[in-house]
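Q: What would this chain look like folded?
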Amino acid sequence: MKRILVISIFLSMFVAVLHSEEKAMHNIEVYSESGRFAGWPANNGIWSWGQEIVVGFSLGYYKENPTGGHDIDRDRPSERVVARSVDGGETWSIETPGDAGQPNAAEAPATLQQGIDFTEPDLALRFNGSSLYYSFDRCKSWQGPYTLPTFGRPGLLSRTDYIIEGPARVSAFVAAEKEGGGEGQTLCMRTTDGGQTWNLVGWIGPQPPADYGYAIMPATVALENDAYLSIVRRGGRFDGQKRWWLEGFISPDDGHSWYKLDQPYIDTAGSPATLTRLADGSLAMTYGWRHAPYGIRARISRDDGQTWSREIILRSDGASWDLGYPRTVQRPDGKCVTVYYFHPKGQDLRTIEATIWDPQKMLQE
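A: My prediction, written as structure tokens:
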């Protein structure tokens, strides 16, 4: 009888441990279809309202690239797709351009005639290239595209990275083409009239070399005393070799001037990062890891980016470097939902997947 009791207690403890690990992190398939290439959530955007989460991604067709680049068929059309979850990222539905209201990048941008009310509770903004879109109904319908200034450059290379700072004020963090064209140099721009006009606030770091080098895809959070922290995706050539990494910049004066930080400096081999302010005040940084073992990783800062935790490995089971571009939001229960594109082992496709993880528990493991 004692032996049965001991075994029963052991099994209960074992199940409890498994349940605890399951709660700390689990993966969800958002979109997967044979023959398709789903990619780049960071190029589109993520928005959340409590348990409801919406993320955009690009959907094309799979075709092996013999040169080693992305395995997407460039001769077939790609479309902009939205995935929506109403249960905190546990299940997802897909909304295609055939559904009402998906933003149409093929339309010619117009001039915004009336300011946007940034206090609308169901608002979403989307920055794409040199255009702005907005939605008042949680991404079910969109207005736009509207023209953005290029500040003397050939064009903007905007992705969605913005901070709402008042009913008519938004600061956006984007990249512009270099003076001679091509990727790219990051900047802070701002509207104080609901998006009708935008002013250049400050360039984030120097312009990269004309022959090769870029600074693009900033991920930004606000700090105290009108300061900002931005993690920028970098590329450059050193001793004849190309390298790709993440580095941090801080602005102490409302985005006007920016200073490069010694840390973080992360060699991701090409995937951008995303920054998320958590409910306890800490910061979560997630990014794709394009070195073997390929996957998704994260770090936590409790002092506004002055120092960072050890690396948290969310996944290390990718089949190739062709993954990442994450976006992260936090659920009301404190868990993070990180959405990214992924290359599963043994499959000729790219999927959109999500990792739901508990930052506190992951750091304790």
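The chain has one domain: 28-364.
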